[in-house]
Amino acid sequence: MSGDKFMKPQMDAAALQAFLTSDFPQVGADFSVDRVDADGVTVRLNVTDAHLRPGGTVSGPTMFALADVAMYLAILSRLGPVALAVTTNCSIDFMRKPAANTDMICKARLLKLGRVLAVGDAMIFSDGQDAPVARASLTYSIPPKMMG
Amino acid sequence: MSGDKFMKPQMDAAALQAFLTSDFPQVGADFSVDRVDADGVTVRLNVTDAHLRPGGTVSGPTMFALADVAMYLAILSRLGPVALAVTTNCSIDFMRKPAANTDMICKARLLKLGRVLAVGDAMIFSDGQDAPVARASLTYSIPPKMMG
Amino acid sequence: MSGDKFMKPQMDAAALQAFLTSDFPQVGADFSVDRVDADGVTVRLNVTDAHLRPGGTVSGPTMFALADVAMYLAILSRLGPVALAVTTNCSIDFMRKPAANTDMICKARLLKLGRVLAVGDAMIFSDGQDAPVARASLTYSIPPKMMG
Amino acid sequence: MSGDKFMKPQMDAAALQAFLTSDFPQVGADFSVDRVDADGVTVRLNVTDAHLRPGGTVSGPTMFALADVAMYLAILSRLGPVALAVTTNCSIDFMRKPAANTDMICKARLLKLGRVLAVGDAMIFSDGQDAPVARASLTYSIPPKMMG
Description:
By secondary structure, the first copy, chain A, is α+β, with helices and mostly antiparallel strands. The first copy, chain A, contains two helices and six strands; from the N terminus they run αββαββββ.
């Protein structure tokens, strides 16, 4: 999509998963890195009761967390394991009710990886379904040191 | 701010707190309804370890949840205890690092309460500080039956 | 992308262009409908001096207008020539400087076409370039009568 | 609201108006700077036929332009006449139909003025009415040299 030269991945799915487990022990087990590709990363929310609202559907804050983690990992996959990018904006649309008691899949796509800002969007699905449940765009501020 | 006639509160802080405790048992204890006024409501996040990132600061998803709960309660304070308004969009800006291990205060303000959509904004502060940590705007879809 | 049954186009590019010319005479000449497909529509901004900032780049409000027109036409392409959908939200990220004195291309994609709300996103490029200049997500309110 | 020390205005309404006229000759006459205060600035859209949709209401792109100009001037009022801040994001909610053939008033409020990012929100009214027509939040990237 982008043409920026530094968009080639430096970390694969296993390396991102290891980073998540070691640096975010509280939430690392909630998420699985399914895939890293030329557009960004795909992350799975391993649904448990803690993520659910009455009725068995995943809560809005949990979907926000999924989009945020996925885009953060997409940035790290290009910059390497430096845990400093900071979310500055997220605009999220909730479009459909998620399937009950079902994992969610988030495809995060990098659109810009600049010197001070990274921008991307994320599409969230209930596993096995075609129609997106939510859509988010996110911006991150990148501290000066991270870009080498 | 608004001029809409139906903006007068139907539920006070104690009634909203009771609703939160009974209908959202998983998260009800996290939030305290501090105030209901002509603009909207003020909700406190009672910070515990579960809300914190390494370093003791409240996580982004937790601030999203705080803004979402506060605006939802602002809508209910006008419409009465009908638990059906659905978040359709949230755009949130994270502007400053929260104070460590400190409660957060969210002032949610209703800007529109229409037949099918409600819109408002929310400002989030670390308790005792003047500079806002985050700012959110939120839209809710209101099912036909709710407006009586 | 979506799976909604009513996503099949009812109007082609020529029909949308004719609608734009007749119903929006002030701005119709600014835009060309390049394509209607299964995802949405592609609309071109025919750049003139009126759209430019000093330096020859297209202004932010003009890109906003391009995204808004394109998504509106994407909705009409599915619902037929009923000029009543109303923009309720737009979140737009400006990511790169546009190429000077160059047409812009907007690919608008429908993500939801519900009874009361339509949601989509749009990617804006300088004609002939791969890296997106801007990205927008838009929500429209659909009056009851429009859905037949 | 903010507490940042550099939030004190360096330019008054007349100085901002003179800057707008000289540096943005194409649109300068559309806007009047009504007021500069501790929160930000108030800018008026001098409505003409060019801003109107059929029915006499101000178009969405024109309201976007009003919010963008007002926040840009709010930043300049603090930083001085350096015409380089760049809009990176705008999320705008259109909440009510504007009054026909009526000037619009935009109150832009600075929420953060950091080293690399400025954030604020804007409320747009039809002149003489209490209920807001639109609400926007905006982020600007500030080039390194601007902060002295």
